[in-house]
Amino acid sequence: MQIRVNGEPIDLSRYGPYHRRRFDMTLALLRDIGGGRVIELGGHPWAMTARLLREPGVDLVATVSAEEVTAWPDEVPIEKRHYEIELEDGMRGTFVNYSANLERSIFDIDGQADVVLACEIIEHMTRSPHIMLLNINRWLVPGGRLVVTTPNGTQLENPFRVRPKMPAFRYSSYSRHNYVFSMDGLIDLIEICGFTVERAEYWTPYRRKGASDLYRGLSLIGNRYMKTKFAQCLCVVARKVEDRDAANRLPKAYVPNVDWERIAAADETT
């Protein structure tokens, strides 16, 4: 599978099939909650973007994906740019992308959304994922929904695989998984940024190799413990219930002895 974005070819022959079932599950969820105006975070390499442009009942307001991720991308400038995409079957579409560092900058987008998709991105944040969630709160209409998917940080590892638990070092810190959440930790972080959680699900969209593929079957057993330990991904749907420009307290996943930005002081929330 190959697409062209602004005339440049992008080979999705591996990425597309590997993530296809997760894309299918996400789109089914999007239909279930009503579709509408959608903002997609972390669109590059635009495989899900291509699916959204085809999806009936979806108006893609914008994508937010940093165009230039340097070795130390702390201050990526906020830039709005129009993109043209050509799919494998010749279908053409356009969309607007905002290039920015989602956890360092609070910024506006032209128009508001009914749904923001933050799929497989929060685990790439390096220090302030609540800033990303505050941005999402800013872009959603009252009652709008946030969809987050991310790897399940509590799943069991293959005991016969000998390798470090953390991913290898990369040129850009944002190209690796920097933190993986438990379901409780993820829900806590989302709710302190102006949301209430409506759905919290465990997903297993990926095939595994060898004996570890048996984990897929174990994750489908109804017991919560089995899902917690064997499911691959977390999926949370949350509804915006209030405007917030700061989290209302320190998230459980944060170290308490740091002077965090945009987190209300304890005496302001008691």
What percent of residues adopt helix (DSSP H or I)? 10-25%
- Give the strand line-up of the largest sheet: 2-1-5-6-4-3-7-8-10-9
Number of domains: 1
Strand content: 25-35%
> In whole angstroms, how far apart are the ends?
54 Å
Structural class: alpha/beta
H/E topology pattern? EEHEHEEEEHEHEHHEH
Query: Counting H and I runs of at least 4 residues, what is the number of helices?
Result: 7
Overall mean pLDDT stands at 88
Using the coordinates shown, work out and report the CATH topology: Rossmann fold
**Main sheet?**
10 strands, mixed
What is the number of beta strands? 10
The coarse overall form would be globular
Q: At CATH's second level, what is the architecture?
A: 3-Layer(aba) Sandwich
CATH H level: which superfamily? Vaccinia Virus protein VP39
Task: Give the radius of gyration.
Answer: 19 Å
The CATH class turns out to be: Alpha Beta
Query: Which residue ranges are poorly predicted, with pLDDT under 50 across at least 5 consecutive positions?
Result: none
